[in-house]
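Lecture notes, part 5. Sequence design as translation. It can be helpful to think of inverse folding as translation between two languages: the language of shapes and the language of residues. The source text, in structure tokens, appears below.
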């Protein structure tokens, strides 16, 4: 994918380089006629079910349009389908993702981790009010903007009808973020988003995932069901101070039964604001 891209609205975008790739499609950096930066996502058409790809695209775009004014949700500028069948979403461009920073070995101080959590919680509180569950709160979907503003992105599977198999395919390479209730019973709830955010925050605290890389999916799933992430969070409580206080909150987010986690994003936000 290279060269110029023209939208039905009459805008022209010059594609620069691919900045991300995954099961849902590729994301390119681009600029418009005024040299303003954008990120453009190309959804890969599904050769087995064209309707499935279109449904995912429409789901993300329609949800994004309902979140246009939220400061912690990535803004969609426009969306359209090319003559070649590519499904396109034009978005504001971030500096990078949390995944990029983790890959480079960037270490977050506790205040920065708290800022990540509180800003993402504001986004979750909003989408849960729609009501929608994100279901893919992972470092690659938390984008970093200037002045350390964090925004939640990628709503491709944020719908109540997603199946266990669909989510597992979307999270290829991120099995450690699957919530216990999805593994046990095949469903997700709002508390499932809190669990995934808890894994993100714990990863930032430790500088690495609480579940080791290189495990088989079955080994990873067993560690999730055994409660290893929660136990890892509890090990940070003894640090005391702000680190210990944040670890206490994260440990509640990571409880294996969703009924014992926090009830709302706003409840967690209030707890973090006291640190």
């Amino acid at each position: 994918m290279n060269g110029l891209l023209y939208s039905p609205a009459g805008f022209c975008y010059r594609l620069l380089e691919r900045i991300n790739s995954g099961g849902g499609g590729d994301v390119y950096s681009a600029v418009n006629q005024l040299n303003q930066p954008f990120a453009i996502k190309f959804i890969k058409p599904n050769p087995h079910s064209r309707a499935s790809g279109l449904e995912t695209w429409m789901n993300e775009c329609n949800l994004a349009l309902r979140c246009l004014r939220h400061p912690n949700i990535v803004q969609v500028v426009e969306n359209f389908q090319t003559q070649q069948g590519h499904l396109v979403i034009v978005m504001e461009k971030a500096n990078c993702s949390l995944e990029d920073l983790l890959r480079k070995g960037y270490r977050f101080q506790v205040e920065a981790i708290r800022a990540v959590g509180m800003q993402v919680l504001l986004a979750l509180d909003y989408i849960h009010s729609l009501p929608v569950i994100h279901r893919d709160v992972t470092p690659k979907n938390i984008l970093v903007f200037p002045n350390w503003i964090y925004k939640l992105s990628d709503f491709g599977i944020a719908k109540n009808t997603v199946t266990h198999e669909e989510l597992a395919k979307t999270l290829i390479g991120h099995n450690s973020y699957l919530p216990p209730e999805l593994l046990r019973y095949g469903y997700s709830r709002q508390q499932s988003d809190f669990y995934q955010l808890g894994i993100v925050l714990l990863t930032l605290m430790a500088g690495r995932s609480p579940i080791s890389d290189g495990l088989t999916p079955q080994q990873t799933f067993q560690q999730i069901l055994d409660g290893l992430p929660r136990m890892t969070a509890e090990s940070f409580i003894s640090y005391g101070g702000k680190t210990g206080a944040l670890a206490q909150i994260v440990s509640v987010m990571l409880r294996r039964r969703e009924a014992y986690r926090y009830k709302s994003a706003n409840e967690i936000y209030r707890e973090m604001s006291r640190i």
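The translated text above is only one of many valid answers, since several sequences can fold into similar shapes. Confidence is low (pLDDT under 50) at residues 168-173.
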